[in-house]
Amino acid sequence: MKKLLLPKALVKVKMTFLFLSICATISFAQLPVPTDYLTKDFHKGRREALRKLLPVNSVMAIFAYPVRNFSNDVDYKYHPNPDLYYFSGYTEPNSVLLIFKDNQKDSASQSYNELFFVQKKDARREQWTGKRLGIEGVKAAGFSHVYNAEDFDRYAPDLSKFDKIIFEFPLDIADKLNQSDDIYDLVKTFKKKTAMPEDFDDEVLGDLMSLRQYPKLLASVPRLTQYYQALADKNERYKKNSLVTKIIQVKDSTEVKTLLSEMDAMKYNPALYSLYTKQLRQIKTSEELVLMRKTVEISALAHREAMKAIKPDMSELELQGVQEFIHKKLGAEYVGYPSIAGAGANGCVLHYIENIATSIGNNKMILMDIGAEYHGYSADITRTFPSNGKFTPEQKQIYDIVIDAQDAVFKICKEGTSFQDIEKAARDVVGKGLVKLGILKDESESRTYFPHGCSHFLGLDVHDKGIYDKLVENMIITVEPGIYIPEGSNCDKKWWGIAVRIEDDVLIKKDKFEMLSSAAPRKTEDVEKVTAQKSFVDNLSAELKK
């Protein structure tokens, strides 16, 4: 196991752009901070890479996410739009970044190719919610044309003149009556500046225009038409959309291509936003790989500690707390997604996040799907291990099928392999294994007990952006086969309540892969060895019981 390098402590550093916004509540004068945030050169490089993809005479708008209310007058801890962070490093709400393909001229004939509208400095609000960067802070991060968000209408140019207007609006935005610079108002102004038709449905069109990124769906005309017919039957917005009607009526692949060309030509284009951000974010740069290795290793060590700590009388919440303590101890700011700690049959619920069982129970396993988020980048690791340190024969048989499925995928984890190949490799092993145990009658029924996909992209989002076609060097994906046999299943009762998922994070290379999560034991013999070791929690539990 590699030694984990923790952030240098007690060093006075110049505040980075990201730190200024993430740690706004800390006094700016003296306190030490991490020094390994992404650099402003990284973010500038990402904007340049995006600009190369943009069509001639186009503009792309990237909006901040809205603030979400937690309870009454308390909001959730703000989580920035990963796209805005990726292209700017900015992590505050109430903002929009405009990136232009071509250089523009301002009123003083100065050239620019991006405009950034950010939330303004406000001493009264900052006393309550922390320091804000403001215009000068954002300029220090490498932006020349920065304005307050409330001036978007006044300083943004006429955006209707561009041939392509590329954007994605945040979901579920609401008008805050005491604010004139929130996301609702920024979107409203953007629609006016672009002369967007009032009946333009960005969510439906964004879905439709992203079709090119799903090769399997496009390859089957019957499947394509049935999919959108079902959406139209359930949702009035899809039913009324003329493009949906055309998709439902296509007869062959030639008509599909014609329709795609029609979509590409549209001026208001959320599909290009989705396509470009997926194309860029699915390939990790060297700077991103440093942070990904860090967040995955933190998560793997946390899983290892939970294995040491487990006892039959522990609760799901206790083990969740062990892992999340390790995250914080090693510098991770958040979890990448709600933590899953499912004991026994609770593990059969794929996204079980209640974690309220007060004891795991003897001869039971716990499925822990928990990943850290470090400087915006998320890990995603799952381990399943026994409460008393030893797998029962039935648990081990199911567990070993899942391990074999993972190993089958690892053999093909390299550039050129398709996600379809990965899915087939894992599903074939699970199907054969369950038939051999008499749990299934036919291998084709594997979805009965393996209902989810085997892999997804990983990065700034736990289900990160990417195009699900063929693997390319420097993609990071999960490999996560699983078997879940709920109570009452159509098989021998001895299998009921067994749930196993093993999930690892993998870096794709030209002709091989790199296992990023190797610090978390996988195989049954290694798991049993680690569960026999002592944890720091053992002494803590003894102290609390005195």
From TrEMBL:
<comment type="similarity">
    <text>Belongs to the peptidase M24B family.</text>
</comment>
<keyword id="KW-0464">Manganese</keyword>
<dbReference type="InterPro" id="IPR007865">
    <property type="entry name" value="Aminopep_P_N"/>
</dbReference>
<keyword id="KW-0378">Hydrolase</keyword>
<keyword id="KW-0732">Signal</keyword>
<feature type="signal peptide">
    <location>
        <begin position="1"/>
        <end position="29"/>
    </location>
</feature>
<dbReference type="InterPro" id="IPR052433">
    <property type="entry name" value="X-Pro_dipept-like"/>
</dbReference>
<dbReference type="InterPro" id="IPR000994">
    <property type="entry name" value="Pept_M24"/>
</dbReference>
<keyword id="KW-0479">Metal-binding</keyword>
<dbReference type="GO" id="GO:0006508">
    <property type="term" value="P:proteolysis"/>
</dbReference>
<dbReference type="Pfam" id="PF05195">
    <property type="entry name" value="AMP_N"/>
</dbReference>
<protein>
    <recommendedName>
        <fullName>Xaa-Pro aminopeptidase</fullName>
        <ecNumber>3.4.11.9</ecNumber>
    </recommendedName>
</protein>
<dbReference type="Pfam" id="PF00557">
    <property type="entry name" value="Peptidase_M24"/>
</dbReference>
<dbReference type="InterPro" id="IPR029149">
    <property type="entry name" value="Creatin/AminoP/Spt16_N"/>
</dbReference>
<dbReference type="GO" id="GO:0070006">
    <property type="term" value="F:metalloaminopeptidase activity"/>
</dbReference>
<dbReference type="InterPro" id="IPR036005">
    <property type="entry name" value="Creatinase/aminopeptidase-like"/>
</dbReference>
<feature type="domain" description="Aminopeptidase P N-terminal">
    <location>
        <begin position="38"/>
        <end position="175"/>
    </location>
</feature>
<dbReference type="GO" id="GO:0030145">
    <property type="term" value="F:manganese ion binding"/>
</dbReference>
